[in-house]
């Protein structure tokens, strides 16, 4: 078990001391008001302690202290994923195109240890499904849950709907990680059934990546156009096919993270945050119930 605090340990310690003092005062008020009040005090106190522990970011793996070097290494990899109705078509080796996309995303993640990843989904509009982060352990369940939008008509898809979001994401990454490469992997069907106007990608901050195509029909030309706009190769994907050479890291770099980067680390803070949220939601519900009862009692008492 290791810790990588989001705040300096001294600040966390001061907050913990203040919290203990405040909760002890609350305990004095709760004593003598019944077992229910004491249990609520304990649940709220536990929730606050869990938030503090989450801020300490417990996890498994090695934590490096060379924070400044962290911005100078490791690629920023963006997955631009087509979640339109076309991705639900089951013509990819007997399964859906989305299934092939999920497998390819997993393969790219595996091929780039130490990189940061982001997921930008689109159909007619874009959405950031996962912000740029090196927490691949938490990212994988998000990838496994990727499915086509249930209410995205195929005739309204814009193959370049994510253009502006991607451009702003790349600008932000350039400021935060000025020495890191930006790779874009576009996974889509090319909006072959769409009648909506198609946009275009306009960015010069892409250092590599690929456009993975899953449509061999009318969307093929659109996918090739997207590849030209991004300045990356177009790759028509086939079921069970290994990643193309363009998607593999340079020889000798896949097994050795660059100097100053942290080894892959499994974060546990979000377990604590979920439990704390559940406890606090229960307290909010009980407080709202008490407030309603107090108002009702007041109306009955007043003439």
Topology:
Blueprint: E1 2-3, H1 9-30, H2 35-55, E2 58-60, E3 76-82, H3 97-111, E4 116-122, E5 126-133, H4 136-144, H5 163-176, E6 182-188, E7 208-213, H6 219-230, E8 234-236, E9 266-267, H7 269-301
Parallel strand pairs: 3-4, 3-6, 6-7, 7-8
Antiparallel strand pairs: 1-2, 2-9, 4-5
Helix pairs in contact: 1-2, 2-7, 3-4
Q: Which spans of ≥5 residues are poorly predicted at pLDDT below 50?
A: 65-72, 252-262
CATH third-level topology of the largest domain = Rossmann fold
CATH-level-4 superfamily name of the largest domain: von Willebrand factor, type A domain
What sort of overall outline do the alpha carbons produce when their principal axes are compared? elongated
CATH architecture of the largest domain: 3-Layer(aba) Sandwich
User: What strand order characterises the main sheet?
Assistant: 5-4-3-6-7-8
Q: What is the CATH C level class of the largest domain, in words?
A: Alpha Beta
Share of helix among residues?
A: 40-55%
Please supply descriptive tags for the structure shown above.
303 residues, 2 domains, three-stranded antiparallel sheet, 7 helices, elongated, membrane
Could you explain the architecture of this structure?
With 303 residues, the protein is of the alpha/beta class. It folds into two domains: 2-63 and 265-301; 68-247, von Willebrand factor, type A domain (Rossmann fold), CATH 3.40.50.410. Helix content is 42%, strand content 15%. The protein is built from seven helices and nine strands, in the order βααββαββααββαββα. The strands form two sheets. The chain has a six-stranded mixed beta sheet, sandwiched between helices. β3, α3 (97-111) and β4 form a beta-alpha-beta unit. α1 runs antiparallel to α2 (35-55), α2 (35-55) packs antiparallel against α7 and α3 (97-111) runs antiparallel to α4. The longest helix is centred in the C-terminal third of the chain and has 33 residues, at 269-301. The protein is elongated and about 75 Å long. The termini are far apart. Residues 65-72 and 252-262 have low confidence and may be disordered.
